[in-house]
Amino acid sequence: MPQKRRTFLKTTSLGLSALATGTAYHCQGKNTAITNITHPIIISTWDHGMAANKVGLHILKNKGSALDAVEKGVIVVENDPAVQTVGLGGFPDREGIVTLDACIMKGDGQCGSVAFLQDIKNPIAVARKVMEETPHIMIVGSGAKQFALEMGFKEENLLTEASRKKYEEWLKTGIYKPKINIENHDTISTLALDAQGHLAGACTTSGAAWKMHGRVGDSPLIAAGLFVDDEVGAAAATGLGEAVIRTAGSAMVVEAMRHGQSPKEACQSVCLRIKAKHKEVQDLQVGFIALRKDGAYGAYSLQPGFTYALGQHETHELYQATSMF
Ligand code: SD4
């Protein structure tokens, strides 16, 4: 994996897309959704973000919504059995059971989430149904599965042969020591800004491999794994969920942008806060991506190796985020 990430990498810390030329940015403003967006933009975590962005940008360029772009984008990754950290083929927990977490959010505050979902390969689509079809925001476990089945989702075995083999290898030692970035993490989070000036985000994962049965990370938690506000911008996290939850990571990134920090600065300041809260940071990886309502974007991580994909205009590129260490 790390080797693959090195291909097509660009190094950047902050980008300002040309999409919002001439538009003033008012960090404290109300109802300030920008309306003169000419080029939508989409940003996703990790290498597999490239595949998500391709589908998402196509939707955005055809005047589709940011919500459709992020949902349909991350579904590509959920459906890919070769990605062993998301959806079908995700690594199981320590009982050998694949459990999935996801959430989705729009810039107007509408959101939906599922956690500890089993046997349904597209948790993000179920999360969207929770948002659109129920009075609730979050449904978990057997309740989430029951809801998904009622909504017409198909029940299927998510544990692929390849992931089962890895699990059996892990069972030989059975030691849970998350080494993020290397093998057992890599959530997909995607943020998009559409031609109407609206933002949306999606975050979906099989969570930390070999986790305790029932463990839920940051990814389905609004404010931790994902936060979106049309007045300011959007942010999403990847990495060790426990560290992200402790700091309400993504909401804090958005709030830092609200108070005037650039997207990259905002990601960096929350990483600093995470570092300050943890004694052992050697193996601790957390990364954030952020997209401001005017199309400025940024990313930052604790450890090196965090890549993010960017789609805008006719191009799709993979960047290496700046890291603290
Ligand atoms: C979790 N945050 O469950 C997820 C894992 C992850 O990149 O993001 N990996 O803790």
What are the salient characteristics of this protein?
325 residues; alpha+beta; Glutamine Phosphoribosylpyrophosphate, subunit 1, domain 1; 9-stranded mixed β-sheet; 6-stranded mixed β-sheet; 30% helix; globular; binds N-hydroxy-L-asparagine
Question: What's the total count of β strands?
Answer: 15
CATH class category name: Alpha Beta
Major β-sheet profile? 9 strands, mixed
Strand numbers in spatial order across the main sheet: 1-14-13-3-7-8-4-5-6
CATH superfamily: (Glycosyl)asparaginase
Give the second-level CATH assignment, the architecture.
Answer: 4-Layer Sandwich
> Separation of termini?
20 Å
Cα Rg: 18 Å
What is bound: which ligands?
N-hydroxy-L-asparagine
Structural class: alpha+beta
Helix proportion range: 25-40%
Catalogue the unreliable spans.
Answer: 1-36
Note the quaternary state here. Answer: single chain
Order of secondary-structure elements = HEEEHHEEHEHHEEEEHHHEEEEE
Taking all residues together, what is the mean pLDDT? 88
Instruction: Write the CATH fold name.
Output: Glutamine Phosphoribosylpyrophosphate, subunit 1, domain 1
